[in-house]
């Protein structure tokens, strides 16, 4: 491993304390990014079974793959938030925190006695981030929200398929992750503002809003033309040629976003005549004549193998790529050279591989991660070191069922 990455500093958010009430994916991904950036994250989990994702198979020696993927470098405390003592512990921790993160339905944290107004009264520097499915003012506000629901309502699913095929969800849980990503943006901006004003605020992010914000040029196609973009599969709604093209033994991705790349591609096909053909000479002409151009490209590319075309397209400087499986993607040289996978050791599970965060500062990546915690693994330490509770006080809370930790 590169020595600079081995010796990475704690991160630019060192000293920032995050109290994380979120679970499943929207929220845990955000707090994991904050932890990657150096923040201390205390994850509050239900006292019985913890974050629901702890029970999602497959497992590595009893620990869920799902939980592993989203909860590195955090501390876990197990707390009964339905008990007055549990709520008071949460309030005491929030008083010392810079950030509170939650992803319950609107109103749940208020009913628990842990809403923004309540916690702000004791800590006016607190940044309180709420990730919801739809937002408090949405007509869907009280409905349960999951990734696929947000994808369906965002319009994304309608274009994520081949023409004439059934709508499909994205292969990654972008509805959940979009809410997390935008919440990190909001929190970092609010931290910057707090440095100037000394005051915190309530940051609200909805999963559906976030996915709609990521529509990019698709929403603008609708605003400009009045027509919803239609599915084009791997092709592009306004750029041709672009997408997956068949070879004699597979497929290759080609993306000709500029005229120079289109000319290079035509030459790689041994069809330089296509460059001057009025049907294909300009962007709008190629778009209008997509159905005429595609068969010409297919007929030529199916004469040779994927390996042949990857080499030839590289020679002609055409943006291109093979279509890798998840396993192939994780094992490729790029991942190795960028050191995007690291191995950590868990005291009970043993060695496990994790995907590193992608952000680097002055060429240095995140500090080495710590393994995801067992349920309540850090309860006793947090109560002792951060709230000053004595062992006898903690034991009384254990007996009453307010907290749970590891022996």
From TrEMBL:
Any matching Pfam family: CoA_transf_3
InterPro entries: CoA-transferase_III_domain (IPR050483), CoA-Trfase_fam_III (IPR003673), CoA-Trfase_III_dom3_sf (IPR044855), CoA-Trfase_III_dom_1_sf (IPR023606)
SUPFAM superfamilies per UniProt: CoA-transferase family III (CaiB/BaiF) (SSF89796)
Entry keyword set: Transferase
Top-level taxon in the UniProt lineage: Bacteria
Gene3D superfamilies listed in its UniProt record: Crotonobetainyl-coa:carnitine coa-transferase, domain 1, formyl-coa transferase, domain 3
Molecular function terms, GO-annotated: CoA-transferase activity
Protein's recorded name: CoA transferase
Organism the protein comes from: Aquicoccus porphyridii
């Amino acid at each position: 491993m590169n020595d600079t990455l081995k010796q990475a500093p704690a991160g630019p958010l060192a000293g920032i304390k995050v109290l994380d009430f979120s679970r499943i994916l929207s929220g845990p991904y955000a707090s994991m990014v904050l932890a990657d950036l150096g923040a201390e994250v205390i994850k509050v989990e239900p006292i019985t079974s913890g974050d629901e994702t702890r029970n999602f198979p497959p497992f590595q020696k009893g620990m869920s793959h799902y939980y592993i993927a989203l909860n590195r470098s955090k501390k876990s405390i197990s707390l009964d938030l339905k008990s007055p003592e549990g709520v008071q512990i949460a309030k005491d921790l929030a008083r010392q925190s810079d950030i509170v993160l939650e992803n319950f339905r609107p109103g749940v944290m208020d009913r628990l006695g842990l809403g923004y107004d309540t916690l702000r009264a004791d800590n006016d520097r607190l940044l309180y981030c709420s990730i919801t499915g739809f937002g408090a003012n949405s007509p869907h506000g009280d409905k349960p929200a999951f990734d696929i629901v947000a994808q369906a309502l965002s319009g994304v699913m309608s274009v994520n398929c081949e023409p004439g095929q059934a709508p499909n969800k994205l292969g990654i849980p972008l509805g959940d992750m979009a809410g997390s990503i935008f919440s990190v943006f909001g929190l970092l901006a609010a931290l910057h503002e707090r440095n100037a004003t000394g005051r915190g605020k309530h940051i609200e992010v909805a999963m559906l809003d976030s996915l709609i914000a990521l529509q990019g040029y698709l929403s603008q196609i609708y605003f400009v033309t009045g027509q919803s973009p239609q599915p084009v599969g791997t092709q592009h709604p306004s750029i041709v040629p672009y997408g997956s093209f068949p070879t004699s033994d597979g497929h290759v991705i080609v993306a000709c976003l500029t005229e120079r790349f289109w000319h290079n591609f035509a030459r790689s096909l041994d069809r330089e005549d296509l460059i001057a053909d009025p049907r294909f000479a300009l962007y709008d002409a190629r778009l209008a004549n997509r159905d005429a151009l595609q068969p010409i490209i297919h007929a030529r590319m199916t004469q040779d193998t994927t390996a042949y075309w990857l080499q030839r397209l590289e020679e002609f400087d055409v943006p291109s790529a093979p279509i890798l499986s998840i396993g192939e993607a994780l094992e490729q040289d790029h991942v190795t050279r960028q050191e995007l996978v690291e191995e950590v050791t868990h005291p009970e599970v043993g060695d496990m591989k994790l995907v590193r965060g992608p952000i680097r500062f002055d060429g240095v990546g995140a500090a080495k991660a710590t393994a995801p915690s067992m349920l309540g693994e850090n309860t006793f330490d947090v109560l002792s070191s951060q709230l000053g509770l004595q062992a006898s006080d903690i034991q009384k809370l254990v007996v009453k069922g307010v907290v749970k930790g590891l022996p």
